Amino acid sequence: MNWPIIIAALVFGYLCGSVPFGIILTRLAGAGDLRKIGSGNIGATNVLRTGRKGLAAATVVGDALKGTVAVVVSGLWGQEPALAAAVGAFLGHLFPVWLGFKGGKGFATFLGCLLGLKPLAALACAVIWLAVAFVSRYSSLSALVASALTPVVLWTMGELRMAIVFIVLATVLWWKHADNIRRLMARTEGRIGQKA
Fold first, then answer.
1. Is residue 193 part of a domain?
2. CA-based torsion, 48, 52, 53, 58: positive or negative
3. What pLDDT, on a 0 to 100 scale, did the predictor assign at position 29?
4. What total number of domains does the chain contain?
5. Cα–Cα distance, 158 to 46 (Å, whole number)
6. What's the confidence (pLDDT) of residue 147?
7. 85 located within any domain
8. At a CB cut-off of 8 Å and minimum separation 6, what does 13 contact?
9. Structure pTM?
10. Residue ranges making up the domain that contains 48
């Protein structure tokens, strides 16, 4: 195992993941500071609460692709650096140094990393998210269900090492969604498209 390359991939992934597209795009569009809108989260769901669907879509793409880019570039040195970059990108989004380590919930970056590693698994994850979102209208519930099932999907595809990494990422994602889980249980969670 080439530790210098793995550590470099982890750091590269973190730097990619720490780019706060939600904040950058809303500021460029004159929509104000995203951290002072709705839930205060920097992700696409909160961007959607500004009423700017285009900005929300762009945020999803940006937050996903920063994970994909980190994984694909690091993957030129093998699967282990690619997995390290996925972990780094995910943690970078959740804990960006530029924002005092206060970032987003991570699902778009989770999906983007998966896209770079195993596109078919990413497609399955996205379909699960869409199905749950269509039925429930809860972005958080969709992310929780899709992330929990992703390791199962990877395991059925024979990607045991990848499945283990995504069990860890899904666990952290669930931890970051603790407040959402409480609101879901209390039936006070905001639905997709609900304005601030």
1. no
2. negative
3. 74
4. 1
5. 36
6. 98
7. yes
8. 67, 70, 71, 74, 84, 85, 86, 87, 88, 89, 90, 92
9. 0.90
10. 3-186
